[in-house]
Amino acid sequence: MGIWLELGVFLVILLFGVWQLYDVKKAIREREQRKTKEHESAAATPDK
């Protein structure tokens, strides 16, 4: 019985870690897209 409880806790922690990695990768991707967009808009406007 105890091994099933430990296995369940391990799986919950593992799923939480995978979910966090997914969120981190999503945030990095959004930041890179925003940075690229800002760089393109800055390049499109002429300097004064």
N/C terminus separation: 73 Å
Q: In this structure, how is the largest beta sheet organized?
A: none
**What portion of the residues fall into strands of 2 or more residues?**
under 5%
The average pLDDT is 91
Please trace the helix and strand order, writing H or E for each element.
Answer: H
- Count of alpha and pi helical runs: 1
Radius of gyration: 21 Å
Per DSSP E runs of 2 or more residues, the count of β-strands stands at 0
Q: Spans of 5+ residues with little confidence (pLDDT < 50)?
A: none
Structural class: mainly alpha
Q: What share of the residues lie within helices?
A: over 70%
C-alpha geometry? rod-shaped
Give the topology, please.
Elements lengths: L1 H43 L4
Give a structural overview.
By secondary structure, the chain is mainly alpha-helical. 90% of the residues lie in helices and 0% in strands. The chain contains one helix and no strands. The longest helix has 43 residues. The radius of gyration is 21 Å and the shape is rod-shaped. The relative contact order is 0.07. The mean pLDDT is 91.
Notable features of this structure?
1 helix; single chain; rod-shaped; 90% helix; 48 residues; mainly alpha; 0% strand
What would you say about this model in short?
The protein has 48 residues and is mainly alpha-helical.
